[in-house]
Specification:
The protein is mostly helical. It has 7 helices and 3 strands; from the N terminus they run αβαααββααα. It has a 3-stranded antiparallel sheet. Helix 1 runs antiparallel to helix 5. The termini are far apart.
Length: 191
């Protein structure tokens, strides 16, 4: 009588079930990873579109300031950013999240300074007053436009590579804007 053979026949169904459970977990994990990658890709594309629209608004405001128009357009409309802030933590790396939050916070800061120095017109534009420091806002919009352009390029590269692309040392001042630099343009320092 072969004892080893009898034990194998009794353990075979158990081993098959364990193998099937393991294979099922592997397949579910792969599907979830693909779903997260697709979701991150779609969110990244939406963010790039929103950043490009914001960049276009910054350039439009620079043109309005250059042409000495008495108004600038409001840039307070980051719908994708605000609506998906909670999903960032699960879909993106911390360096990218930090950069995006800093970028949108600086946009809010620029809007706050603008609303303090100009008259709000229905939330869509600001009527400039004689007290408005136009040159400082011109510098802020110029720096913001550069930051937005660099961020858009970095997000597009992020979709093709795993880690967040490093910004060159030459771009570091404009790529990672500091709130302190933006505040100094307005002539006041808030800490």
């Amino acid at each position: 009588m072969n004892i080893t053979g009898e034990w194998m026949w009794h353990l075979l169904p158990l081993m098959l079930m364990l193998g099937m459970v393991g294979l099922n977990h592997l397949i579910v994990h792969q599907r979830a990873e693909r779903r997260y990658e697709l979701e991150a890709s779609r969110l990244r594309s939406a963010l790039v579109a929103e950043l490009r629209a914001l960049h276009k608004l910054y350039l439009t405001n620079l043109d309005l300031i250059e042409s000495k128009a008495n108004y600038v357009l409001a840039t307070r409309s980051p719908v994708i950013y605000r609506g998906n802030l909670g999903r960032f933590a699960s879909l993106f790396e911390s360096a990218l999240i930090e950069h995006l939050v800093t970028l949108f916070a600086e946009n809010e800061l620029l809007e706050a300074h603008l609303s303090a120095q100009a008259n709000n017109r229905a939330g869509v534009s600001y009527q400039l007053t004689p007290e408005t420091r136009v040159e400082e806002f011109k510098q802020m919009y110029t720096a913001g436009a550069k930051d937005l352009e660099i961020t858009c390029h970095a997000l597009e590269r992020y979709g093709r590579t795993d880690p967040m692309p490093e910004l060159s040392a030459a771009d570091s001042d404009t790529a990672r804007p500091s709130s302190r630099r933006l505040l100094c343009f307005a002539g006041q320092t808030f800490e």
